[in-house]
From TrEMBL:
Membrane-protein topology: Multi-pass membrane protein
A GO cellular component annotation in the UniProt record: basolateral plasma membrane
Record organism: Peromyscus maniculatus bairdii
PANTHER family: ORGANIC ANION TRANSPORTER (PTHR11388), SOLUTE CARRIER ORGANIC ANION TRANSPORTER FAMILY MEMBER 1A2 (PTHR11388:SF16)
Record protein name field: Solute carrier organic anion transporter family member
GO MF annotation list: bile acid transmembrane transporter activity; sodium-independent organic anion transmembrane transporter activity
Similarity comment text for this entry: Belongs to the organo anion transporter (TC 2.A.60) family.
KW Cell division (keyword) present: no
Transmembrane segments: 21-40, 60-80, 87-108, 128-148, 183-207, 227-251, 302-324, 339-361, 373-393, 497-519, 564-584
Record domain Kazal-like: where: 418-473
Gene Ontology terms: biological process: monoatomic ion transport; sodium-independent organic anion transport
Amino acid sequence: MAKPENRVATHGVRCFSKIKMFLFSLTMAYVAKSLSGTYMNSMLTQIERQFDISTSVVGLINGSFEIGNLLLIIFMSYFGTKRHRPLMIGVGCVVMGLGCFLMSLPHFLMGRTASPKFRMLIWKLEDIFSILLCIKEIKSSMWVYVMVGNVIRGTGETPIMPLGISYIEDFAKSENSPLYIGILKIGVVIGPLIGLMLATFCANIYVDSWSVNTDDLTITPTDTRWVGAWWVGFLICAGVNVLTSIPFFFFPKTLPKEGQEDNVDVTKSDKEVKHRGKAKEEKHGITKDFLPFMKSLFCNSIYMLFILLSVLHLNAIVIIVTFMPKYLEQQYGKSTAEIVFLIGLYTLPPIFVGYVIGGLIMKKFKTSMKKAAYIAFCLSLTEFLLSFFYFLMTCDNFPVAGLTTSYDGYVQPLYVENIVLDDCNTRCNCLTKTWDPVCGDNGLAYMSACLAGCEKSVGTGINMVFQNCSCIGSSGNSSAVLGLCKKGPDCTIKLQYFFILVLITSLIYSLAVIPGYMVLLRCVKSEEKSLGIGLHAFCTRVFGMNNFLTHQTNTILIVFNRNIYIGVPAALRGLSYLPAFFILKLMRKRQLPGETDSSETELAETKLTEKKTECVDVHRSPEVENDRELKTKL
């Protein structure tokens, strides 16, 4: 009676251990990690205000995630495959949760009594960073918690992508793998969307709402002195990351190949013997393969060309994504909130559809890697050529004093440093790299109310009006309102065409992503796959342009010069097709390590089984003949 119960229990565990359950859990982990990253980036302004720190310290806090991530990702990608991959992913999610919790901790410690030894440690760290960054004074040392928490968060994220994708590649059907990777990519898109919504919600709540009477506040979220409840989102991110870690602790180290789950009991004993032997070999050679694997990857011309392609392409995408809201706001005269909404509306749905369709096509037609490479190349090139139509969908630049025109209204070359200030605003001690535009009643825009020479303001929020502006010479009352000056209806029509083109190009681009990424996964050997994914991520992050592009001067140049905003990404993407061409050329002559189809593998295994059966029959045939002779004699 005990046997049926055991079978039921085993069946339940087996159902939980299937690759689709792992895919769902990994997708949730992708959502959680991208949610945390987007929320962190969105809260940098609130953190800067909370701790009254300089821009250089904010940059250090923001880059600390990459420090924790890049230090471990290559080694984690290699050593992780030798261990229990789901378990390590689960631990990584917990570590990310711990990092997020640590980032929220200053809110609970500020103003509280801490141990003298602990405060001495914080002050010493503060002195070290002050020396390194040439900072004369930091009013609050609690920012160190946020930085250390971000480092820990980056450390925890390292096993998720390389170990998760390699686990799927090892145990999923070859034709199903592209669809599964596409689903993971959707998780990367959903996370930032939720992160932005969470950041907007928390930024509109006062930081000390639970300890002060908000009715007595004299400032609003639009005030530069406002500090949002940045710590609330980090607590939510910590909880989400810990919750997503739970399923990974129940997955086994290995799974039966997808589609072969019903044969587990039959081949269990044979697999256990093989697994023990393999475990001994891995334990014996856990480090000796690292350098050979690295050498193999660096000698893999297709893989290295793919890394070069990815670096060039990523840098182009960084420019487009980073500056699109500000560029469209300046070009078409719309508010930031409206532009962000339109970007999400016209990009996210086609990206979702493209990822799924791309994976389904590869699954349905069992596309070979050579065909996948050609599909990705043709789709990407089509989208690249269509992107040149963006040059036709632009409006004239706003006349902005100190940038595109002089303070007297004369047109001039874009952004000449020595004319940002004028006699009318030199006494105001204005920041020359701040972009908080206002529109004067003379029809001329200014980089900020300070640079317009405004002395006072009336009203709050979007209804705020600046008065007594010395730089605005007009017959009116020399006033200005927030935002750039309005544009004509022609710009609204061009904006509609712009987003229609965005929708089309986003769909084509996302259709090319999955076939292209599968070429990366299949151009390396199975045992090198996790390390290859980690090295690829390392190179694309190290050689990215994120730090260079955060400078506000470059922001102003790129936003106001459409030739720079559209032309620089086009040039980088154009260069990326050179390594892509050589990849196609090399793939004609080579058989990729991961290109063998699963059906071919099963056919080979069937033939091998038949040969073994024949050998057994041949080996036993003399005994059969002797039995026949004995029966005949009797």
